[in-house]
Amino acid sequence: MAHSCTRFVHRRGPPTRTQAGSKRGKRPRIQRQPRARVPGPAHERPMGSSQEEGLPCQPSQPDHDTDSDDTDATGPPAALLEGLLLGDGKPSPHSTRPGPFFYIGGNNGAAIISSYCKSKGWRRIQDSRREDYVLKWCEVKSRDSYGSFREGEQLLYQLPNNKLLTTKIGLLSTLRGQAWAMSKASKAPGGTQARLGKDAAAPTLEDLPWTSPGHLRPQRVLRMEEFFPETYRLDLKHEREAFFTLFDETQTWICKPTASNQGKGIFLLRNQEEVAALQAKTRSADDDPIHHKSPCRGPQARVVQRYIQNPLLLDGRKFDVRSYLLIACTTPYMIFFSHGYARLTLSLYDPHSSDLSGHLTNQFMQKKSPLYVLLKEDTVWSMERLNRHINTTFWKARGLPKDWVFTTLTKRMQQIMAHCFLAAKSKLECKLGYFDLIGCDFLIDDNFKVWLLEMNSNPALHTNCEVLKEVIPGVVIETLDLALETFQKSLRGQKMLPLLSQRRFVLLHNGEADVWPRLGGSCSLRRRLPPPTRQAKSSGPPTPRAPDQPSTRRPVPPPLAPQHPQLPGPTPDPDSAHDGQPQAPGKEQSGTGDRHPEQEPSPGTAKEERKEPENARP
């Protein structure tokens, strides 16, 4: 559908003027460019067959590849995404402007993402400095990407401060804060972990546990110790001293770096000699003046976690379950769950073995075995295969409900993921166009208790075995479909449900009833989305919010001044504080209950994320 009129948007320079309008006495005529339309979700459109891989993301450095289109690099930026609302997902054949463009940084899932975008008629660019993209998907977060991001015009993968959930210290602090706030609100003791976290907002009705897709009901709140192993931070003196005091050799502990993955830097603590060596390292770091200047860079940026020594075994092998948490939209929040797959070790489980490949299930560790090439298909099980095995092996022997994997296990994983999201919700940076896919790893012990081990940003999207070829492309495609559809409905002020692109993902949280930020505003200025209005003389879709004028910039309201609660100051948290600013203090409900925990000061720009991609090759 072609536009009947065009508008010129000032972005990089003055408009060009034609020679015909430059005569004396005659006003020069402005040459306007037609606006490109941004595509919508693919729904059931078949994915293309391109198999190219993206180049590693190098911020501020152009990349070169034969599969690129860097023409018109200095031309006008890509059209507003609201132009997509009128089209079928492909640019107008009458448009003279190139694009829309997309950028992929890194190799993780690059072939799937590129094929999806090209099926829409989008064109791939390789220069990470360009800002005229419709979609930007990078493995490594860059401060420049968020600084130049245009809210309501672009889609950008990964929330700037997703480390509140996806680093060990970030997730620990988020859950502790929630536990402490909930125990304070209920005036009940919250345990050691709750007392160690006193920096979260007091709960509201919305923070109560999730019971069915998209609905939260006031029931018993999940307690942190019910799903998260006991954990201590080594970067805080009082916590590491508490750990060194309580340690005894009857229990194994596992030590992990806060922002690493693939099993890098992980080791087990089984005896006093190993603990003494760790204690000596932390003390030497305390005496190092360089460490005091950058406390997050030394060996203390770690956690120690109680090791689950009685895991449920599949034919004698340890396993965990990878599931996905999708934040498809942040204004309003639209949160989804999807099944993934089970990951198994190659070797039989021996709790006394020093070989980490028998303790850690990720593919990076299993690839170190010489048997991996022959047996790799047996290191990844589909959820259907896992369910069949549980039914056959444990259903009657352990008195489990039929199809335990798709009933009890699924519901528990969804409850835990919803709990984690709600704990971080008021602190996450939210702009229209941000979206994120987070990999969540769960362990099941031999009592069929479900434990959350960690949450990972940029989860592995490689497809090097048959199960992954069946699972990963569907996850990526539906992620992009839902991000596009929820973006468009938010931009037009339409109701989110039903979602035409929703297939395998299950809705965990629909934030349309939340208080959420105004387009162009900060997270501290919130509004409730008004119901869509109907035009009196039109049967078409609801009228979207009026766009900005062509020659003006959208004013950004000043953030509200934060109100600090009269509580002991929170412990500084390198993984949850914003760069250049102290972490927004938690908020307690007053006696009148007139404050909402989401009234946070606007977060600053995120620094470059240093956590390596989950599937980076050695």
UniProtKB/TrEMBL annotation:
Domain of life (superkingdom): Eukaryota
Alphabetically ordered keywords of this record: ATP-binding, Nucleotide-binding
A GO MF term: ATP binding
PROSITE patterns: TTL
Biased composition (Pro residues): 555-573
UniProt KW ATP-binding keyword: yes
Record's keyword annotation contains ATP-binding: yes
UniProt biased composition (Low complexity): 73-90
Disordered, as annotated region: 1-93, 186-212, 519-618
Listed Gene3D superfamilies: ATP-grasp fold, B domain (3.30.470.20)
Biased composition (Basic residues): 23-35
InterPro entries: TTL/TTLL_fam (IPR004344), TTLL10 (IPR027752)
Pfam name, any one: TTL
Coiled coil: none
GO CC, one annotated term: cytoplasm
Database matches in PANTHER family: INACTIVE POLYGLYCYLASE TTLL10
Protein name: Tubulin--tyrosine ligase-like protein 10
